[in-house]
TrEMBL record:
Protein name, per record: Putative cytochrome P450 YjiB
Domain of life per record: Bacteria
PANTHER family: CYTOCHROME P450 YJIB-RELATED, P450, PUTATIVE (EUROFUNG)-RELATED
Keywords associated with the record: Heme, Iron, Metal-binding, Monooxygenase, Oxidoreductase
Listed InterPro entries: Cyt_P450, Cyt_P450_B, Cyt_P450_CS, Cyt_P450_sf
Assigned protein family: Belongs to the cytochrome P450 family.
N-terminal signal peptide: none
Keyword Cell division found: no
Taxonomic source organism: Dictyobacter arantiisoli
MF annotations from Gene Ontology: heme binding; iron ion binding; monooxygenase activity; oxidoreductase activity, acting on paired donors, with incorporation or reduction of molecular oxygen
The organism's taxonomic lineage, starting at the top: Bacteria, Bacillati, Chloroflexota, Ktedonobacteria, Ktedonobacterales
Length: 407
């Protein structure tokens, strides 16, 4: 069997999907002897792992060097706070941030998102070409998130540098769970601490001088006398920036790539733009950026007849679950109007991604406007697509050059 390290470093994504197909049949629950991690491949099992927080804890901080990404901060600081804690703390903190990310709050951003998309399209329309990633898919979520947080315009790209450095902190599973901090994490600590210091300065300013932005809202939020402390707020800013930027950028890239590979689907959406939300859900199923989620067993667990010991690290493969033929008809095909489509891309249960409404809104608006304003859109070449270096963390494209009829 091909090694995990080889799978993670290849640009041939089909090799990974072929591996998932094989593992769902032959070893749906598999122990990797090198890392001692358990890997889960079938849809029903992955959903159980994501949903059952009493047996599969999201708090993996005690098992990985992630807990020490910043030597200056308390245990409240972690990259992806809401993704790595369990009830009752999870419920309290999620309630504190829910108002800022409710569907109603996110819907109010629709007008501004359209303005940003229009500006980005106006920058390239006359040229007849662009790199979807560099010229469009990166800039849209970064600008939206930066404005939500109240960041000055000339400082948006600081976070781009920091997040790229954090993305480069990829190590093998065996290194991750060896008990020793990998060199890659030591190299990334400076960027993490610079980013944390930057957000802390903003938080302190908003506590004294609140504005109309998300940091001000979260800094003053209170439930049952409880406020978010600085490290919790910083962690949430990390999560919003990393997940919001990387996820939406990757989804937009995959969306254009999927439609280019399926021209009949692109034409269908041009003729029926009201079907864009369905198409977006199929992209989320077919090519979602987050391959897997990690959990730790809180007790001995039997899953589909296999016993997993207490304290074991479990990898729930969302990408495999989303291609499970027991759940999806012809899962290997991109079906633009697939319905129902109960993919697990934004998680399941209490840890369902709080930023999902924002990502869905950004991508649906962007796709409609791209299809309306960039006629004859197609990839500039059909060379193999190059993936991001941090593919252990996120499956995204480095570049996607396209051409279209200038206007």
């Amino acid at each position: 069997m091909i090694s995990l390290d080889a799978l993670y470093t290849t640009d041939d994504v089909q090799k990974l999907y072929q591996w998932f197909d094989q593992m769902r049949v032959d070893q749906p629950i598999w122990l990797d002897e090198r890392s001692k991690c358990w890997h889960i491949f079938r849809y029903d099992d992955v959903r159980v792992v994501l949903n059952d927080y009493s047996r599969f804890s999201a708090d993996i901080r005690s098992r990985t060097p992630i807990r020490s990404i910043s030597s200056k901060r308390s245990s409240d600081f972690t990259i992806g706070l809401l993704l790595s804690i369990d009830p009752p703390q999870h419920e309290l903190l999620r309630n504190l941030v829910t108002s800022a990310f409710s569907p109603q709050s996110i819907a109010q951003l629709s007008g501004r998102i359209k303005e940003i998309v229009q500006e980005l399209l106006d920058n390239v329309r006359s040229s007849g070409k662009m790199d979807v990633i560099d010229d469009f898919a990166y800039a849209l979520p970064v600008r939206v998130i930066s404005e939500m947080l109240g960041m000055p315009t000339n400082e948006w790209y600081k976070c781009k540098h920091w997040t790229d450095e954090l993305l480069a902190m990829q190590v093998s599973d065996a290194q991750m769970f060896s008990g020793e901090e990998p060199e890659a994490f030591r190299r990334g600590r400076q960027s993490a601490e610079e980013m944390a210091d930057y957000f802390e300065e903003m938080i302190e300013d908003r506590r004294l001088h609140p504005r109309q932005d998300v940091i001000s809202e979260l800094a003053t939020a209170e439930i049952e006398g409880r406020h978010l402390n600085n490290d919790e707020l910083i962690s949430f800013c990390f999560q919003l920036y990393l997940a919001g930027y990387l996820t939406t950028t990757s989804i937009l890239g995959h969306m254009v790539a999927c439609l280019d590979a399926n021209p009949e689907a692109m034409q269908y959406l041009k003729e029926q733009p009201d079907k864009v939300p369905l198409a977006m859900e199929e992209v989320l199923r077919f090519s979602f950026p987050a391959w897997r989620m990690m959990r730790v067993t809180t007790s001995e667990v039997t899953l589909s007849g296999v016993t997993i010991p207490e304290g074991a690290v479990v990898m729930a493969w969302i990408a495999s679950a989303n291609r499970d033929p027991e759940q999806f008809t012809t899962p290997e095909k991109f079906e633009v109007s697939r319905k129902p489509n109960r993919h697990l891309s934004f998680g399941y249960g209490i840890h369902h991604c709080i930023g999902a409404p924002l990502s869905r809104l950004e991508t649906s608006i962007a796709l409609r406007m791209v299809l309306e304003q960039l006629p004859n859109l197609r990839r500039a070449d059909h060379e193999p697509l190059e993936l991001l270096d941090g593919r252990r963390i996120v499956y995204g494209l480095k570049h996607l050059p396209v051409t279209f009829t200038p206007s």
